[in-house]
Amino acid sequence: xTEVVSKSQSSEHDYDAxxxxxxxxGLYAVYKLREMGLRVRGIEAAPAVGGTWYWxxxxxxxxxxxxxxxxxxxxxxxxxxxxxxxxxxxxxEVERYLNFVADKFELRDNFAFETRVTxxxxxxxxxxxxxGTDQGESLSSRYFISCTGMLSEPKTPHFPGKESFQGTVVHxxxxxxxxxxxxxxxxxxxxxxxxxxxLIQTIASEVEHLTVFQRSASYGVAMRNDQFDDAARDHWxxxxxxxxxxxNNSFVGFxxxxxxxxxxxxxxxxxxxxxxxxxxEGSLSMWVGTYPEMFTDEAVNEExxxxxxxxxxxxxxxxxxADRVIPTTHGFGTYRVPLENGYYDVYNRDNVELVxxxxxxxxxxxxxxxxxxxxxxPLDVIIMATGFNAGTGSLARMNIRGREGLSLTDEWNKxxxxxxxxxxHGFPNLFTVAGxxxxxxxxxxxxxxxxxxxxxxxxxIAYLRAEQVKSIEPTEAKQDEWVDHHDEVANATxxxxxxxxxxxxxxxxxPSRLISYIGGVNEYHRICDEVQASGYEGFTKI
Length: 542
Prior knowledge:
With 542 residues, this protein is an alpha/beta fold. Helices cover 30% and strands 15% of the residues. Strands 1, 2, 3, 4, 5, 6, 17 and 18 form an 8-stranded mixed beta sheet that branches. α1 packs parallel to α14 (446-466) and α14 (446-466) packs parallel to α16.
């Protein structure tokens, strides 16, 4: 394994920094720390780089941020060399991009692949982390940086009788890399969120019969995906500096924000024009580029929701099916908004059946399929698109213990609290990129926020080393201050009252709190910069 060794680093620890994860954040963190001259070790459970884009290789997987903003900004050379093929790239293209980055900057040798962290204990005397892996390793490191992603720990429902099912069962987040032959098969998909939508619209024409087990209907926005030629790529490359500025100063890290002003400053005709214009753009600007009152004003949200419901209804031939596919229990934008490309048209096919598992819950597997409270559905393949334990799941699995043996898992089982989503009181030198209560947990174009957070972490480490400070952690008062601010902002929105994975409602027993900061990426960046400029006021430094 090739490592960059810091001349100033004593030999008392194996590494200056251990980074968990080889996705967008993990690759960038290793690059940045290595450029600083630190001895850095990456740990990745998969056999290769990619993170989310390695594991989520189900049919139809695709990013819903435009490619020209879903990229790294740290290297102009990289921007010039990589050729995006589509406006919204499929999983395979994003995975190729991350492999290209890993090769270009020679990052693979810094990682141990097919390795999981099984324990991480803070040694207060040595002021370092003692890290154990499933490969039997025991490592010591001054800094422990989690880049495991906010959606990386799959949620798998425990229906009884799984061992009796004679067919194939997979989760979308662990889909076989070699794929599955679904032609002529009876396939059941459990879940119709963002992942389920991509999968369902992709396989419906291939399978003999498709049964969709829907718990919650989704407001999908019709995607407008363009193929890029050299002229299009050159156009976006020429705007890279402008785009970088825009994404870091927008509400959710895209190159657009709420540019239309207030809903109440417009006439009904003007509002309709804005909604139509945003709908035709075929992007998430329909969600975060119309009017800000959509998130806070029930009356405004209902009008926008009606607009989207009408768009969906026009796509479905059977009014009875449309009634079940169109959401009515939550407003547009208060739940994850996916982009879709033919999803609603699927329900016009003779080989597609919709099952409402709210009214007829799944009770068990059977030898031949799934049994609901009403009937048995014969199936050859069952695909679970049932989501994740968002924000906290992957961190909880690592058995992290801070000062005096404090368990992060136990703490978060009681109440999910962080400071800026980046550190946790009681856990010195633990940095949680994409941790809970930061925008990156749900309300940010991931590459925007992950890069900003990695920059904050590495700048903090550079400060500590320059000041010869061994450890840093937020005080309890500082953490309380951030949680109170987070909750105040969250509770002013309609999202906090909507039952979804945004609030942890999909995981039984998980403390209820909006998992992501919704005060705006631009505001979050400002606060992070203020903390840094203050010399990390409110943080304990030893």
